[in-house]
């Protein structure tokens, strides 16, 4: 069996010794960038490698391209290979329950043409709550070769700006309602949103236990937001192109495939004062 969206704790436990599986610990705290690595060092799922959101799942920042710009595909492909991923591997990503870093890795692998990737439903909390094994031991990794075949799953800032008045593009913002309205901005220098965007907090994809809601419930929620727009018209953004991937995964689970990511997101958009900002 292959996994392309989610994998349960019970299913992953059955594959801990499966050489075809490669697990990544993506735990990350935007306000404490090294917290994830510190947590990994204390305990992680056996065999898991660590993926740092700032260093491994992002490229070089220049002050104008956002806080988590996409890396060069070749650079990311080489990193995957060094961590034992090739075209035949089933990749599993996890982080904190409700976190979005695992979905960023999920999206990035799909971006490079690799569909055998899934997110651990419920994350680290679900794993430990179930009494599943953990370790502080570092995994033994056999280096592999990952061949990237990039897909057109992202749009750049020029695309978003040139389509602001285009009825064929709908921007969906995954940030909190307060940040969306511009009432507060704890991370980026400017508060507000991209004009015309609609708000869908990524955590609304989860139930009270931190698990993804059933597909039918997710579909109903997105249809009420999108109306009769096809998924192909949807562009997802957030603060820096991370939690937006959570909404993309949720739409995939809901059977609404084809939406795209604006990786630069608000942190790139607001870096240029000439770009319009909406508030309220």
Write out key terms for the chains shown.
280 residues; alpha/beta; Oxidized Rhodanese, domain 1; 2 domains; four-stranded parallel beta sheet; 10 helices; 28% helix; 11% strand; globular
CATH architecture of the largest domain: 3-Layer(aba) Sandwich
| Average of the residue pLDDT scores | 97
The 3D shape can be described as globular
Number of helices: 10
Secondary-structure-based class equals alpha/beta
Q: How far apart lie the N and C ends? A: 47 Å
List the helices and strands in order. Answer: EHEHEHEHEHHEHEHEHEH
Assembly of the depicted chains: single chain
For the biggest sheet, the summary is: 5 strands, parallel
Total number of domains: 2
Helix content, binned percent: 25-40%
Give the tally of β-strands.
9
CATH homologous superfamily assignment of the largest domain: Rhodanese-like domain
Name of the CATH first level of the largest domain: Alpha Beta
Low-confidence stretches: none
CATH topology of the largest domain: Oxidized Rhodanese, domain 1
Strand content: 5-15%
Strand order of the largest sheet: 1-5-4-2-3
Write structural notes for this entry.
This protein is α/β, with parallel strands linked by helices and about 280 residues long. The chain has two domains: about 5-130, Rhodanese-like domain (Oxidized Rhodanese, domain 1), CATH 3.40.250.10; about 155-270, Rhodanese-like domain (Oxidized Rhodanese, domain 1), CATH 3.40.250.10. About 30% of the residues lie in helices and about 10% in strands. It is built from ten helices and nine strands. It has helices spanning about 10-15, 35-40, 75-80, 100-110, 125-130, 155-160, 175-180, 215-225, 245-255, 265-270, and strands at about 5, 20-25, 50, 90-95, 115-120, 170-175, 200, 235, 260. A five-stranded parallel sheet has the order 1-5-4-2-3. Strands 7-6-8-9 form a four-stranded parallel sheet, covered by helices on one side. α2 (about 35-40) links the parallel β2 (about 20-25) and β3 (about 50). α4 crosses α9 (about 245-255). The N and C termini lie far apart (about 45 Å).
């Amino acid at each position: 069996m292959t996994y392309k969206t989610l994998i349960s704790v019970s299913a992953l436990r059955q594959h801990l010794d499966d050489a075809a599986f490669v697990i990544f610990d993506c735990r990350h705290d935007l306000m404490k960038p090294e917290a994830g690595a510190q947590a990994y060092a204390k305990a992680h799922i056996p065999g898991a490698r660590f993926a740092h959101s700032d260093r491994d799942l992002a490229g070089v920042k220049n002050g104008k391209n956002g806080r988590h710009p996409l890396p060069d595909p070749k650079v990311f492909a080489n990193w995957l290979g060094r961590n034992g991923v090739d075209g035949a591997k089933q990749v599993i990503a996890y982080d904190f329950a409700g976190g979005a870093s695992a979905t960023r890795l999920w999206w990035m692998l799909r971006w490079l043409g690799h569909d055998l990737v899934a997110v651990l439903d419920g994350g680290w909390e679900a794993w430990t709550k179930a009494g599943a094994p953990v370790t502080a031991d570092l995994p033994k990794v056999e280096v592999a070769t990952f061949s990237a075949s990039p897909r057109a799953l992202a749009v750049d800032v020029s695309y978003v700006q040139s389509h602001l008045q285009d009825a064929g593009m709908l921007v969906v913002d995954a940030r909190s309602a307060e940040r969306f309205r511009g009432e507060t901005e704890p991370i980026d220098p400017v508060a507000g949103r991209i004009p015309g965007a609609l708000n869908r907090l990524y955590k609304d994809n989860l139930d009270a236990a931190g698990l993804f809601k059933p597909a039918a419930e997710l579909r109903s929620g997105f249809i009420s937001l999108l109306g009769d727009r096809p998924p192909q018209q949807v562009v997802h953004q957030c603060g820096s192109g991370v939690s937006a991937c959570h909404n993309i995964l949720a739409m995939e689970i809901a059977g609404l495939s084809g939406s795209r990511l604006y990786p630069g997101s608000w942190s790139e958009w607001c870096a240029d004062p000439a770009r319009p900002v909406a508030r309220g």
